[in-house]
Amino acid sequence: MRPARSTATLPVRHGTAAATLGRPARAAAVLALAALLLPAGGAAGAAAAPPAAPRTATHAAAADTAAADGERQAALVAAEDRWLNQVRAVTAVAPLRDLLNRAPGSSTQKWNQPYRLDTAGGYTLVLTARTAAYTVDDLLRLAPQTFVRQPQGAYLLTENIYVNSGARLKLAHPGGLELRLASRSSGFVAIVSFGGGLTLEGTKQAPVRVTSWDPRTGKPDTEVGDGRAYLRAIGGHFAMSHTRVSHLGFWSGRTGGVSLTGTDRPDTGAVEGPSAATPGRLLPGEVRVLSGGRVATPDSRFTVPSLSYVSGAISDSELIGNAYGLFVSSADGIKITDTTVRDSLQHGVVLHRFATNAVIERTVSRNNGGDGFLLSRATQQVRITNTTAERNRGNGFTLSGRPLADGPSASGQSTASYGANTVSHSTARGNGHYGFEILGGIAVSIQENQIEGGDMGIVARLGARDLTVTANRLKDQRRQAIAIRDGVAKARITGNLIETTQTGVYVRDSVAEVRGNTIHDANSHGVTFVGAVGGSLAAGNAITGIGPSALDTGRAEGKVTLRDNQTDAWLDTSTLWARVRHYASPMTLLWTAILLLIVVLAFRRRRDDHGHPYAATKPLFPRDGGEPAGGRHEHGRPSPREVARGRARVPVMAE
Fold this sequence. Notes:
Layout: E1 17-20, H1 23-47, H2 55-101, E2 115-119, E3 122-127, H3 136-142, E4 147-149, E5 155-157, E6 160-163, E7 168-171, E8 177-184, E9 187-188, E10 190-194, E11 197-201, E12 208-213, E13 230-234, E14 237-241, E15 243-246, E16 257-261, E17 288-289, E18 302-303, E19 311-315, E20 318-320, E21 324-328, E22 335-337, E23 340-342, E24 349-351, E25 359-361, E26 364-366, E27 373-375, E28 383-385, E29 388-390, E30 397-400, E31 422-424, E32 427-429, E33 434-439, E34 445-447, E35 450-452, E36 456-461, E37 468-470, E38 473-475, E39 480-485, E40 491-494, E41 497-508, E42 512-515, E43 518-532, E44 537-539, E45 542-547, E46 549-557, E47 561-563, E48 570-572, H4 576-583, H5 586-607, H6 640-645
Parallel strand pairs: 1-2, 3-6, 5-8, 6-10, 7-11, 8-12, 10-13, 11-14, 12-15, 13-16, 14-19, 15-20, 16-21, 19-22, 20-23, 21-24, 22-25, 23-26, 24-27, 25-28, 26-29, 27-30, 28-31, 29-32, 30-33, 31-34, 32-35, 33-36, 34-37, 35-38, 36-39, 37-40, 38-41, 39-41, 40-42, 41-43, 42-44, 43-45, 43-46, 44-47, ...
Antiparallel strand pairs: 2-3, 4-5, 8-9, 17-18
């Protein structure tokens, strides 16, 4: 238990060997942790201050407390890493040390038996490799003072367990098993498998229950500020069925509750590879040194196999109230089925970097503090089907295929994108942010899902390519049902049913094919194109609703093809000026101006009365004695009409 010292006088018995390492370091770690824990009491005292304090001061105190709490938890995670490094170092060199110190002719091999280590992180029971799996009975025999059966029938574990490479620990019991991992303000325990196997196996009638436990309160530990017990498999194999895991983990993914992470060395529990060497292929752990001279492709003198991965299977289980519901990284072939993850402080199911070939089926993730399902960068070939993400504070599903680097970097990571992830026949309902969010990546497929509520339904951005969004049903999004934006290329939005939203499909600065979708009751636009969308297409869509326009291309740049869309049932509420702006184009305005000019000139000519073309040459007085020429009055005076035209002439001989 770390960093508690209540087991400092624990004797070694039942054939175990003890190794004491770094007591000064342990004392320093305890003092450092005590120093870290002292501000917690101060913060608690500050919280008890009179309520008359100003609101701004209260907020500042809360922010300071949160910052101190975060620093404290980060320090605990670093301490966990140091503890694991110490244990790994001892388990790696202990057999060699035993071999070197063995007396001539002696066959004693005490390091091949389970032993206990006293490190800066507290006491740790190390389970060494053997053919049979370790069971509950073995733990009772090996740790009678730290693995104790309580009156209620539950088992309380008060020291760490480390399952070494080649060893297997199976936690199961015919009548059901309840395992309580000691976790309180003075320390907590962990069960860690490094390259070995860890199995939690119950039945439907007799499940396994694992929880953190505070012996002082007699309840699970719900305070994460001082650390909390957790389970972790580093490499090897992890299996869990008919198990309920609750209130485990703190701060980081690897200490988040139930975490499955890879390792940087080969192990015996990973997915099996080829049993025999094939020409030109290396076995796991093999390094081939080539001779000088011409080097065959690839251009490398040393060829090292890829890192080993953790494998695992989780079924018919519940993960409740963990820091991270389930955290997986550097894993190959993980399978999660018929499992519920809820009430996590952070995300529900997290597939972190280098998780590949994972299958998630019939799994529910609800009421989590972050996303329901999160596929981080460098995850690929993940298939999610028949799952539900509901009432999560973040997204229902987040799929990130962005590269680990966009150029030269200190870590030297690849600039290639990841992808080939699929989510189908699943439900995203009532999540706080989006139903689905696709961040970059290639060949991502979102098919036949149901998305209800949220700010937006399906959002793809950050340069995703070859995206397929097909046959989904979206309803009651506050802004946009489907949004394709910020550099997405080759997106296919086909056959989706969209109901009751502001904008059905929104495309911005991307290229998308919007074909054969049915959009009902949109109250702004059916399909909108904004920005650099040249090469996009909207065809065969049936759009009903009320708003400025069914097909909005007024802000589009580049050629957008619109054809065979049914918009007869759309009620256009745009103003006259908006319609003019919508239909106006340079050529349209030019031809309209020409036609108007012709009409105006024709109208003016028609109204203009020019009179007789030779009226100016007519005699002033007609020969027959009638009315004077030009319509003059008697005595040769010009008529008012002639005066108005400026054509009146006064005869010289007028009387």
